[in-house]
Structure formats: C-alpha cells, structure tokens
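Hi all, posting the design record for the shared folder.

TITLE: backbone redesign
STEP: 1 of 1
STRUCTURE INPUT:
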C-alpha cells in the first residue's frame, strides 16, 4: 500500500482503551488516529462470539457516522463457550461508508475460577484486576497477557485482528 495513502488515512477508534489505541497505532503508524467512546450496543460483558462481534461492528459504525474519508475501527473483547468450557475471544471491525470488514483472533481457555466469577455477572476486567492483584489489566496486558505469562499482550492480540482487517481492505483495493 502506498505510504502517501496511509498518511492521508483518518482513523477513528471506537474506544478510549489504551491497549486498543496502541494496537491501532502499531498497525497504522502513519495514519491520523483519534479515539472516542463508542457504545458497543451489547452487554458490558459479551458472552458469545456473535455478541462480541456485534459489539465491534457497532463501535466501528458509530465512528463513521457523519464522517467522510474515515475508517472506523471497533474492537471488542468477550468470552464464549465451546462445549462447557469458557474461552476468551476478541473481534474487530473496520467500517467505511460502503464496506465492512470483520475479523477475530486468539482464543484461550479461561481458568474455572474466572468462569465462576463471570457466571455470577461480573465483568472480565474487574475479575482480572482482583485475580492478578493489579489495576486496569484491561488497559494493559489484558487477560490474554496474564494467562500467557505475558507472551501475548492485549495490544498484540488486537494488533493481529487489526492486521487481518487491514489486509482484507488492502486486498479489496487491488
């Protein structure tokens, strides 16, 4: 992709979460990037692959409302059952007025003690803060960072999803 096109890109991220912002900056280092709080339109703790995907789509679409020449990016983390086991999941969406791309990334099994807390109605972010004895895990390493001994951070995880989104968009520009 021509570097001039990337420099002229305007991207709005539908979140104020630092990890999500850094992931977009990592994949689009030359673009003009801003962030804004955007409602996911789903539960505070998405509990399925589909709900998590819809949250990312809603955030991305919110970002392009009333905008021109702008990419909207929505990123959403959630959990999903495979059989009777609960897994971490994540989705991203890249929206333009006439195009929408979605992608998902890593999934890892959550420990039973985390699953129990989530089934009580708690959000993963608050559960992880208590579990890891840290503050704002969701803004930093995320659950993925904790449960992979920081081999994969939340920034890495979302960067991978954004690379998939960018790649789809670039492929359609050929």
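Okay, here is what came back for every position:
SEQUENCE:
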């Amino acid at each position: 992709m021509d570097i001039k096109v990337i420099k002229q890109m305007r991207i709005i991220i539908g979140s104020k979460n630092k990890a999500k912002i850094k992931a977009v900056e990592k994949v689009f280092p030359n673009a003009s990037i801003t962030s804004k709080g955007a409602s996911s339109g789903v539960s505070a703790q998405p509990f399925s692959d589909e709900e998590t995907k819809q949250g990312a789509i809603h955030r991305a679409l919110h970002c392009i409302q009333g905008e021109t020449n702008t990419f909207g990016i929505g990123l959403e983390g959630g959990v999903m059952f495979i059989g009777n086991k609960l897994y971490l999941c994540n989705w991203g969406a890249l929206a333009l007025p006439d195009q929408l791309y979605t992608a998902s990334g890593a999934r890892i099994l959550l420990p039973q003690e985390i699953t129990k807390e989530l089934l009580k109605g708690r959000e993963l972010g608050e559960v992880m803060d208590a579990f890891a004895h840290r503050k704002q895990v969701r803004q930093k390493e995320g659950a993925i960072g904790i449960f992979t001994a920081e081999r994969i951070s939340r920034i890495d995880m979302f960067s991978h999803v954004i690379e998939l989104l960018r790649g789809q968009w670039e492929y359609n520009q050929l």
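COMMENT: Helices lie at 3-8, 18-27, 49-64, 112-119, 124-132, 142-147, 154-173.
Let me know if anyone wants the other runs.
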